[in-house]
Design a protein that fits this description.
3 domains; alpha+beta; Jelly Rolls; Immunoglobulin-like; TIM Barrel; Ig-like_fold; 4-stranded antiparallel beta sheet; globular
């Protein structure tokens, strides 16, 4: 089985594709004797959903939840100068205690006596496990696995905050600094040293700092912080972290980057491709970001889970602004256990991505059922957690099943994201109604909560190559008309200072579970799953390119 990759589409039968429960990975690796004085850490970038890890048949750790990294020190389990066995058990089962959630039901057998035989409609042990979300539950070891050699004295963490005035703060942690000299250097994008200190925690200000800007607002200038640990004149560890001088602020109607208004021209996406499912692939990632730039986009949301670490560094380099989202999609249950797990995932997500200037906001969840009274206390703890860790970025939640008049949590957010599908899930076939419906709906969210609003999902399915005039549902023409009419509403909403961004759903077609409404997946992409443009891609590209230059956007009163 290749790693990284989801295992579901690698086989030849439905048994593996639709498997529920445990699978086992095993790999043997020789570790040389010369490395015996090094600390060895086994690091997984993403295993979905539950993982148990063994080294030489000894359990070393377990981890709950996909899409975020975890690691374990395996120095005492490694046999140096010998072959070592690494084993990972992975379980993809979802329930109401997991995030994301899912239904897990053993089916009733409905036994009956038929001609003297006791028969049931379903076989013994029949079970359904359906995730409460609209994408395929790809499972396995989805991202890279590394056996990392680390010196006994080593850097553990670096935290960097740098704003548009040139002010910066950094803090670095190591496992042991007794007798250790710390050397910190800062370099600009041309590798010129612009700052140095021997302190592990420092505030300072860089004159004439070159700022990090999103696409359409300026250049995405990056700096590098280099931290070295030196013992008796010998370098024992070194770590480099890129960052940018960038400030995110917000009013009751707009989001600002470096005190300039920012309007999101974006996408909802998925890490999804043929054969590999949600497995990381450098070529697919690069193609997706190249297409996003070709479209004139400047942002996206990591729907509906944190994306790969490699992708986050590419966002920084390219100037693509990102809302990073937890794996909490479609939450219906708000138990204390769920809340604790959600807080841990949120904390781990922020810790992983905190130094990326491209990350301008944290999304707590996508389309939770926050009309329930108990959701308010649940989300209050999440907002407080995010603000407690990171005061430099706003926090949002993406609303779908709730409305302006029944949501219990929207007032807690710094800005509001709304998903709406007029012309598709609502009033399919009534394209002339879309403009007024979208304007009415989003305006009422604005009038109720007085927060900045981004419409984070809208659109319609189209089967690639299905053409029909006059348009019908699932044709490329119908998808295009829904998008065009929605854009008329967006123009009016922006003119009225109601929205500060828009994101199409979806960037590309993606796989889902089988339902009567999904013909080999979800086809709301403006690109096919193989990344070929549909009619709607050119409509969206024309719109985004006309609005790409954001240097002249007005500050609303």
């Amino acid at each position: 089985m290749p790693v990284p990759s989801a295992y579901n589409d690698i086989g030849t039968g439905s048994e593996l594709r639709d498997h529920i429960g445990w699978v086992w990975y095993e790999k043997k690796e020789f570790v040389p004797l010369r490395d015996r004085n090094m600390r060895h850490v086994l690091r997984f970038a993403s295993v979905n959903y539950f993982a148990v890890v063994y080294v030489n048949s000894e359990k070393v750790t377990s981890h709950t939840g996909g899409h975020l990294p975890f690691e374990v020190d395996v120095s005492s389990q490694i046999k140096f100068g010998a072959e070592n066995k690494f084993t990972v058990a992975v379980n993809n089962t979802l329930s109401w205690s997991t995030i994301p959630q899912g239904d897990f039901n053993y089916q009733k057998l409905a036994q009956r006596n038929i001609s003297g035989r006791i028969l049931s409609r379903l076989p013994d042990g029949a079970v359904k496990n359906v995730g409460n979300f609209d994408f395929f539950n790809y499972a396995g070891i989805l991202r890279t696995v590394q056996l990392v050699k680390i010196p006994s004295i080593h850097i553990q963490n670096i935290n960097i905050v740098a704003d548009h005035t040139g002010s910066f703060f950094f803090e670095t942690a190591a496992n042991n600094l007794d007798g250790i000299q710390v050397e910190v250097k800062m370099f600009d994008g041309d590798s010129n040293q612009v700052f140095t200190t021997n302190q592990t925690k420092t505030e300072g200000k860089l004159e004439n700092a070159k700022l990090w800007w999103p696409r359409g607002m300026g250049d995405p200038n990056l700096y590098t912080l280099e931290v070295s640990l030196i013992s008796d004149g010998e370098l024992v560890d070194i770590y480099r972290e890129t960052f940018g001088f960038r400030t995110v602020t917000w009013s009751d109607s707009q989001i600002f980057i470096n005190s300039k208004p920012f309007y999101c021209l974006g996408f909802g996406m998925h890490e999804d491709f043929e054969l590999i499912g949600r497995g990381f692939n450098q070529a697919v990632m690069t193609k997706d970001l190249n297409l996003l730039e070709w479209m004139g986009g400047n942002c996206y949301r990591t729907t509906h889970y944190p994306y790969s670490e490699e992708r986050m560094f590419e966002n920084d380099r390219r100037g693509i602004a990102v809302i990073v989202e937890t794996p909490a999609v479609g939450l219906k249950g708000f138990s204390k256990a769920n809340n604790n797990l959600h807080i841990k995932m949120l904390t781990d997500m922020i810790d992983r991505d905190k130094n990326h200037p491209s990350v301008f906001a944290w999304s707590l969840a996508n389309e939770p059922v926050t009309s329930k009274k108990e959701s308010r206390a649940y989300f209050k703890t999440l907002v407080d957690t995010a603000h407690g860790i990171d005061r430099t970025r706003p926090v949002t939640t993406v609303y779908g099943p709730t409305n302006f008049d029944n949501d219990e949590t929207a007032d807690l957010m710094d800005f509001i994201c709304v998903n709406r599908y007029y012309g598709w899930y609502i009033d399919m076939g009534y394209i002339p109604w879309i403009n007024q419906s979208v304007y009415w709906d989003i305006s009422l969210w604005r009038e109720t909560f007085h927060k900045p609003i981004i419409v984070t999902e809208y659109g319609a399915d189209s089967i690639p190559g299905l053409n029909q005039e006059p348009s019908v549902d699932f044709s490329e023409q119908y998808q295009n008309e829904v998008i065009q009419e929605t854009h008329h509403a967006f123009d009016a909403l922006h003119k009225d200072h109601t929205i500060t961004g828009e994101m199409i759903w979806n960037f590309a077609d993606f796989m889902t579970g089988m339902t009567t409404t999904r013909a080999v997946g979800n086809h709301k992409g403006v690109f096919t799953r193989s990344r070929q443009a549909k009619i709607a891609a050119y409509t969206l590209r024309n719109r985004y390119l006309k609005r790409f230059d954001q240097t002249q956007l007005e500050i609303w009163d």
